[in-house]
From TrEMBL:
SUPFAM superfamilies: C-type lectin-like. Residues 29-96 are annotated as: Disordered. GO terms for molecular function: carbohydrate binding. The keyword Signal applies. Keywords: Collagen, Lectin, Signal. This is Collectin subfamily member 10. GO terms for cellular component: collagen trimer; extracellular space. Residues 1-20 form the signal peptide.
Length: 263
C-alpha cells in the first residue's frame, strides 16, 4: 500500500504542469489594424421629407416685353352727319360717243306727254302730303318739321335725333323767311332751333327787338339761361331759356330716310 502511494506521487510530479487558464480560456486576441476598404455603392434615394415653411418674397423681376395687339373691339355708334363739302374739281371729258340714228318718235309723243302730266300730278300730290297733311316745310335740300310737343332744349335735341334728323339750323336769309312763315302758319310765336347756325346773328339786341313776339308765351324779361336759341314768327333767332319747355323745329336731309313720327 505504501509502495502504490509513492509510485503515484512520483508519476504526478513527473508530468509537466499545465496552467488552468491556458486550458479553460477560449478568448481570441485582436490582431493588427487592417487597410482601409473600398468605398461602397450609392444607396437608394430616401423618402421625400415634409415641406418646409415658405420663404420670403423675392425681388420684383424685370419688365416683360410688349405683348401682341388685342382683338379689334366693336364698332361704336355712328357719328352725326358732317357739313356738305366743297365742290370738287371737274373730271376729264369722256370719250366721244357713237353717232346717233334718226328716229321717228312721233308715235311716242302722246305717251310721253301723258306721262309728264301724270308725273306732275304725282309731284303735286306728294308736295300736298308733305306740306299740308304732315305739316312739313320743304326746301331744295331739307325738310323742316315743327314738333308740337313741349320739351326742354336738351330733350328737344335728343328727340330730333331719335326722329332721324337734327335741330333746325337755317343758314340763309331765304330759309329764315320761309321758316318764319312756317312758324306763323302753325299759329306759334317762337320755337326752339339750333344754337349755332348761319344767317342772322344771335344777340341781345335781337332779343329786345323781338320781345313783343314772345310776350304771349312767357315773361318779357331776359331769360336766366340764354345758351339756347329760338326762332320767332318774325324770322329772328334770339336767345332762349334752356329750361323752359316749348315746341321745337327739326330738320331732315333729303338724302336720308323719311323722318320718324312726322305728324
Amino acid at each position: 500500500m505504501g509502495r502504490k502511494f509513492v509510485a503515484l506521487l512520483v508519476l504526478f510530479t513527473t508530468i509537466t504542469p499545465v496552467d488552468a487558464t491556458e486550458v479553460c480560456s477560449n478568448a481570441v486576441l485582436p490582431g493588427l489594424k487592417g487597410d482601409q476598404g473600398e468605398k461602397g455603392d450609392e444607396g437608394e434615394q430616401g423618402k421625400l421629407g415634409k415641406t418646409g415653411p415658405p420663404g420670403q418674397q423675392g425681388l420684383m423681376g424685370e419688365l416683360g416685353g410688349e405683348g401682341e395687339p388685342g382683338l379689334t373691339g366693336k364698332s361704336g355708334p355712328a357719328g352725326e352727319r358732317g357739313d356738305k363739302g366743297e365742290r370738287g374739281i371737274d373730271g376729264p371729258a369722256g370719250l366721244r360717243g357713237k353717232p346717233g340714228t334718226t328716229c321717228d318718235c312721233g308715235k311716242y309723243n302722246k305717251v310721253v306727254g301723258q306721262l309728264d302730266v301724270n308725273i306732275s300730278k304725282l309731284k303735286n300730290s306728294v308736295k300736298f302730303l308733305k306740306n299740308v297733311v304732315l305739316g312739313m316745310q320743304e326746301t331744295e335740300e331739307k325738310f323742316y318739321l315743327i314738333v308740337k310737343e313741349a320739351r326742354r332744349y336738351k330733350e328737344a335735341l335728343l328727340n330730333c335725333r331719335l326722329r332721324g334728323g337734327t335741330m333746325a339750323a337755317p343758314r340763309e336769309d331765304e330759309t329764315h323767311a320761309l321758316l318764319a312763315d312756317y312758324v306763323s302758319r302753325a299759329g306759334l310765336t317762337h320755337v326752339f332751333v339750333a344754337e349755332h347756325g348761319g344767317g342772322r346773328a344771335l344777340t341781345e339786341n335781337t332779343l329786345e327787338k323781338n320781345s313783343t313776339a314772345r310776350s304771349t308765351a312767357g315773361p318779357t324779361g331776359p331769360p336766366t339761361n340764354v345758351s339756347c336759341a329760338e326762332m320767332t314768327s318774325a324770322g329772328a333767332r334770339t336767345p332762349a331759356d334752356c329750361d323752359v319747355a316749348m315746341f321745337y323745329m327739326c330738320e331732315f336731309s333729303k338724302r336720308r330716310k323719311t323722318p320718324v313720327g312726322a305728324s
